[in-house]
Amino acid sequence: MIILKLIGESFRFAFDALRQNKLRTMLSLLGITIGIFAIIFVFSAADTFRSKLQASIDKLGSKTIFVQKWPWGGFGDYPWWKYVNRPEPSLRDYELLRDRLEHAEGLSYEIWANERTIKYRSNSVEGVGIRAASQDFNKTWTLDFQEGRYFTDNEGRAGSPVVLIGALVAEGLFNGQPAIGKSIIVMGRKLNVVGVFKKEGEDILGMSQDKNIVMPLNFAKGIMDIESDRYDPSITVRGYEHIALDEIESEIKGTMRSIRRLRPGVEDDFSLNKSTIASNQLDTMFGMVDLAGWVIGGFSILVGGFGIANIMFVSVKERTNIIGIQKSLGAKNYFIMLQFLFEAIALCLLGGLLGLLLVYLATLAASAAGFEMILFMKNIMLGIGVSVIIGTISGFWPAYAASRLDPVEAIRS
């Protein structure tokens, strides 16, 4: 009860200081407010961006591994010269992997052709991504359909002229009319639409089926060189959920080395890419962003801390005679010390809450401008925690000085 009463009195003194010396107190709190705003705004923006990127990466699947020529990365000291002469994944690699892997739930060979134009009668859609994939494509990727179905085994083996299209492609070609059974022109060939992917909306990495189409690999053999590096061939392997990712990766690596006939000690001439690589790169990148946020806001908070300490020294000076009376009536040193310490914390909390309010208003403004930004609860707690810590540090010495005053000398002042 004593502690609660002490906290209540401390907040009352803090509000009294704010009411009686509005300009002085607000100027002193400004450093805390700006510092908390800078730190929490940077963290909120980074966390929002990070969550969107992570959601895109999660689409790849936690047990999915991509056998490719190039390792993911591509920035910083990227040794591209080590990889440029590597062979692309081939159909032979795919077929041998399919026969030998035991931990794979699904395995597909895929190629890409970007920025193509698709036509239906007088309608056309530009900038469409064309993907040709082997039959197990639906086992390596999660596919949801709003209309139609996936390829049958017979269609895949025979290379039938069938195609799956994205929701935006369907809207652009058919203007809301049913797409199933209609024939579209792709790279000069007619293909019958058998399925339309459910609309996803484009994520921050552009990973969406909305403006893509998928055709059987065996059909694509007749219209393009499916092993050419211009189509970026890759092999996608999705492992069983009950098998550890390291085991799946180890099996793929050993099998690929055997297929490529690489001697022990010879470096791999292929890359095994997985979602954890991208996640680790995100952690590194956003760790630097977080550090920048601390540096930007740290200086303001440091200045604000000096401002709070200055206010507390003035407060001690103004209430010296009251301190003397309290001590003469039996108040302990810790009581006087906690009284001023809680007052400093209360002032910092006021500054911190004002900074959080500014961040919240900034998130509303960003959302109104088209960039959805979220003020996460962990960042709110961080702002409050930093305010309490700064208040404790800034108020300690003034509070300690007040607790050490001689009651007789204090009453006389």
TrEMBL record:
Domain MacB-like periplasmic core stretches: 25-253
Domain of life: Bacteria
Entry-linked InterPro entries: ABC3_permease_C, MacB_PCD, Macrolide_Exporter_MacB
The protein's name: ABC transporter
Subcellular location: Cell membrane
Transmembrane parts of this sequence: 27-46, 291-313, 334-360, 380-402
GO cellular component, one term: plasma membrane
Organism in which the protein naturally occurs: Pedobacter ginsengisoli
Limits of the ABC3 transporter permease C-terminal domain: 295-407
Keyword annotations from UniProtKB, A to Z: Cell membrane, Membrane, Transmembrane, Transmembrane helix
A GO molecular function held by the record: transmembrane transporter activity
UniProt topology in membrane: Multi-pass membrane protein
